[in-house]
Request: fold
Amino acid sequence: MTFDKAIRINSGDFERIDGGLGIDTLVMDGKSMHIDLSALGMKVQGFEKFDLGAGGNTLALSANDVLAGGVRDMVTADRKVQMLVNGANGDVDLLGGSDGWTQGGNTTVGDVTYSVYTNLAGTAELLVEDKVHVTIM
Reply:
């Protein structure tokens, strides 16, 4: 798995941000940032990986956000559309509640351990680094 580019932001104050083609990372370099992919819609596009950094940042997303922005078999060949979230700390809010997500096992990619969350339809998969706190909302 190779990544094309990383775009760094220090706040959520932007009009639109697009990673373009390829597998790209949105790095949250600020502190206490909150990015809600469902609320931002088309303002955030072209990112398949998110890095929450070490600033106590939060990413909120739904299964539809993963399906719209992820890549099929990006990490593991299981026919699911996948996204990755890394970070030294921070939070991921999985929107859709227990009707939308289930927590599976763990997987290791390189030297990073991820918790795997799958939507109930079995089509979307979010891999979240084990240092990041996840809340199913």
The first strand starts at residue 5 and ends at 9.
